[in-house]
Specification:
Layout lengths: L1 H10 L3 H22 L1 H19 L2 H22 L3
Helix pairs in contact: 1-2, 1-3, 2-3, 3-4
């Protein structure tokens, strides 16, 4: 069951990353899950997933723009309200 979840997390990674690292990551998971436990390995795969999409593929720019826009709108709305 845990191996299936781990494989699904690997499938969510960008294609170029999967081609280069998915086989090795799955091999490490299979070797270490019995002795180290699958929880930390699954957490590591989730951190890797976030890192790949946010940092390598420019998604962080979209997220930063959305946060900036929300902050601007919040400040603009707060300044137009009387105290």
């Amino acid at each position: 069951m845990t191996r299936t979840v781990y494989r699904c997390v690997l499938l969510l990674h960008p294609q170029s990353f999967r081609r280069q690292f998915a086989g090795e990551m799955l091999w490490i998971f299979e070797q270490a899950a019995a002795t180290e436990g699958a929880g930390l390995l699954l957490l590591d795969a989730l951190v890797s997933l976030a890192r790949q999409w946010l940092l390598r593929y420019g998604t962080w720019k979209i997220a930063a723009s959305a946060i900036g826009a929300l902050l601007y709108l919040t400040l603009a709305f707060a300044m137009t309200r009387p105290f």
